[in-house]
Design brief:
This protein is an alpha+beta fold and 97 residues long. It has 2 helices and 4 strands. The relative contact order is 0.24.
């Protein structure tokens, strides 16, 4: 629900129009949930969470989450742990019909 609300606000699309395209359980290497921001110190302990991909209107948004927070994470900024990096395809925009 938090991801849908954020995505709706960012794209100006009703939250109910977003479809869950992918939900993967991830153990992030630290509290940045795989999307570190400059000049922020993160707890260096493994953090259980999720990588969530929502789609609507030809757009795909990727969120990284833990029990404490949700972060919109551009695929080119994401740091994915281990095999997940190889297994996950970065979402591409849907082609117009």
């Amino acid at each position: 629900a938090l991801c849908r609300a954020d995505a709706a606000r960012r794209l100006g699309i009703a939250p109910e129009l977003f479809q869950l395209a992918s939900l993967v359980t991830v153990t992030w290497p630290d509290d940045s949930v795989g999307c570190p921001q400059p000049d922020i110190a993160y707890s260096q302990q493994e953090t259980p969470g999720y990588r969530i991909v929502l789609r609507a209107g030809g757009e795909a948004l990727v969120y990284h989450a833990s029990a404490r927070h949700v972060v919109l994470c551009a695929p080119d900024q994401a740091i994915l742990p281990g095999l997940i990096r190889q297994a996950l395809a970065t979402p591409i925009p849907l082609e117009s019909e």
